[in-house]
Amino acid sequence: MMEIDSRIPVTIVTGYLGAGKTTFLNHILNQTEEKVALIVNEFGDIGIDAQLIEQTTEEIIEINSGCICCNVRKDIVDTLSMLAISREEKMIEFDRIIIETTGLADPAPVVQTFLMDKEMVEDYYIDAVCTLVDARHISNHLDQQGEAINQIAFADVILVNKVDLITQDQLTDLRNRLESINPTASQKICENSRIPLSDVLDIRSFDLQEKIKINPDFLNNHHHHHDDEISSLSLREERPLDMKKLNLWLSFLVQVQGERLYRYKGVLNIDGVDHRFVFQGVHMLFAGEEAALWGDDDRVSELVFIGRNLDKKILTEQFEQCIMS
User: Fold this and answer.
1) Is 90 exposed, middle or buried, given 0-12, 13-18 or 19+ CB atoms closer than 10 A?
2) What pTM did the predictor assign?
3) Residue 239 contacts residue 190 (beta carbons within 8 Å)
4) Cα–Cα dist 165/135, whole Å
5) What is the torsion angle, in degrees rounded to the nearest 10, for the CA atoms of residue 70, residue 71, residue 72 and residue 77?
6) b/e map of 286-298 (b: 16 or more CB within 10 Å)?
């Protein structure tokens, strides 16, 4: 029998300036039956987004005077800690946290918050990172190789918004480019940021193991040709792995290439271990743990790396050194 996860789900909403994040938040708040605690981050001293969010009974907390991925990350940890305590003491009620980052934010440090802080790990789990893109303007932002491409690389769900402003051929080209940057993210097409909530909430798409259950073939396409510096590598191996060699490799990898590794995650078949070993990381921080028993399922290791200027040949060769001889 599977243990029920009592932690609070967290949805991270990101996207470049003008992508439609505030409209998306209003859509969620108007449609969901859940009680939501909404954390809004704005870059300037004056909070505008919270004024644009329609009045509801939800908790809305603003974090201003900086980007959430920089000097105010301590603020978000303090805020989340306060919310968890208030919920436990029944001072406020909520079923989910939604964090809206500024359009200039790199999502990596936000995701790291839920991997590195012991209290955060105990109280919360990331349900999904949702990235909105402005279908008409995103290609120009991607050409600049800035925050927009990082936001797509970290996404679990990409909401291709404002599709009514482009042609079908342009949409096809855009979707191919987005897939080349992040083939593990699901893409949802929408206008005015409207999307079925079942596509973005309670999907646990940050969990690679759950993603494989939903779509067992999503790792099968290994080669993507594009001009962006961000690329992905998927690895699959049926032979068991040597845990000692694997630990050495991952430690080396994080120290040497950590800054170039945006997201990496995997479900691993360790020699002599009956449980799946699940790991995931962001830049130089990664965490791993034993998960469900393999049981009658095929014992297959599957890994995904998304990063900048990945040397796929060397990564593949290094991974192969971890296979039991």
Assistant:
1) exposed
2) 0.68
3) no
4) 7
5) 80
6) bebeeeeeeeeee
pLDDT tens-digit readout, 139-186? 887 887 677 888 898 899 999 999 999 999 999 999 999 998 888 889
Q: H or E segment at 189?
A: strand 186-189
Q: Is residue 99 classed as helix, strand or coil in its secondary structure?
A: strand
23 has pLDDT over 70? yes
Residues 160 and 135 sit within 8 Å (Cβ to Cβ): yes
- Residues with Cβ within 8 Å of 273's Cβ and at least 6 positions away in sequence, in order, are 243, 290
C-alpha dihedral over 119, 123, 127, 130, to 10 degrees?
-60
- What's the number of CA atoms in the CB half-sphere (13 Å) around residue 62? 15
Per residue in 228-287, pLDDT tens? 577 778 889 999 999 999 989 988 888 888 778 877 888 899 999 999 998 877 777 777
Cα separation, 136 vs 132, whole angstroms: 12
Q: Which amino acid is at 89?
A: E
The confidence band for 9, taking pLDDT boundaries of 50, 70 and 90, is very high
Q: What angle do the packed helices 73-88 and 108-116 form, to 10 degrees?
A: 50
Which residues lie below 8 Å from residue 200, measured CB to CB, with a gap of 6+? 11, 28, 128, 130, 157, 159, 188
Average pLDDT, the chain: 79
User: What whole-number distance in Å separates Cα of residue 225 and Cα of residue 176?
Assistant: 10
pLDDT tens-digit series, residues 284-304: 777 788 888 999 989 999 888
Q: Judge contact between 105 and 69, C-beta under 8 A.
A: yes
Measured distance CA(16)–CA(37) in Å, rounded: 22
